[in-house]
Design brief:
single chain, 398 residues, alpha/beta, six-stranded parallel β-sheet
Length: 398
Amino acid sequence: MKTLDDLLGEGVSGRRVLVRADLNVPFDKANPGVISDDGRARAVLPTLVALRDAGARVIVMSHLGRPKGAPDPKYTLAPVATRLGELLGSPVAFASDTVGEDAAAKVAALSDGDVLLLENLRFNAGETSKDDADRAAFAAQLASYADFYVDDAFGAVHRKHASVYDVPAVLPHYAGGLVLKEVEVLRRVSESPEQPYVVVLGGSKVSDKLAVIKALLPKVDKLLVGGGMCFTFLKAQGHEVGKSLLEAEMIDTCSALLAEADGRIVLPVDVVAASEFSADAAHDVVDIADIPADRLGLDIGPKSVALFAEAIASAKTVFWNGPMGVFELAPFAAGTRGVAEAITKIDGFSVVGGGDSAAAVRTLGIDESAFGHISTGGGASLEYLEGKKLPGVEALEK
């Protein structure tokens, strides 16, 4: 596929470049409009700076959240435009629509080196439509703004959406540095990981991670399971899990996976059991054989952290996706922190698989540079590791 460097080599001064970014940032629930983690915005900065400094007229587009194909003030990208301008050190114009009058006027007004952010792509039904003609029509409107297209939104490449899949069919297209790096890293951990290879999985549900577990299990030396999903595995081992998150329909599947793994799946040996899902809840560390019937596990315990850290210490490759507990609540953050810190100490290559894991690294104040790579695309990363084709990558390769 052609790259951003190829485009810059061709010359972009005075030309309009449409950049698909992933600015789907989280907001502070207590302070609407305040971004709680700008990691995804920072990740696309090198591409935007390179284009701006080369004199391109840069038009950025992204989605935010899941509006239902119509404008919704809750999901406006306006605060993101402000933050992007702060990060770039120069103003970023904002269009109050994507393919309407305001966007057209602001695109026409761009000068060399200017940056414009369009309103949320998903305010238009054509962006996510399953009808090829609807998507193509919306893509044609977006493509009419520009001379070239750059995709640097790895977090969206697993979606067959207009801005990801259909626009590159219309415009000369190039992969941004972030997309190239992500694909390179994921290829490394899926095709040629240096052994010992340890995968750490957390999050809520086994069903969400089942495909990636099946894909990775034959390749790993150890698969460490924490988070809410561990309780279905523990139930499959015969433990009672109280009121902890449980997918009853997945118990037999977990039993089969444990048998197939032949000891390579490592589960917690203790958990933090709480009276309710609250930072103020009464809670205690209990062994997995002693989870009270009226309590729910919200984090792995200290003995589990030590067990996981021991497995991680000898690894030459680690892939981590999913927190070990409800890290957003201080009493239940120690498991995620302990495992993350263990990963930073390995003498090898570590990958944080985006999503909540990346958010946890930043929320808990762990040095990002201590990891080999922090992905911007949780869902895209998992689908790549499952062996699925990513529509956005396929579109760039054509």
